[in-house]
Amino acid sequence: MSQPVVQAIFDRLAGDQSATSFHAAVGGRYYHLEGPENATLPLCVFGIDDPASLDLRYDGSEVQNWMFVFQIIVPNTEATPD
Question: pTM here?
Answer without folding.
Answer: 0.75
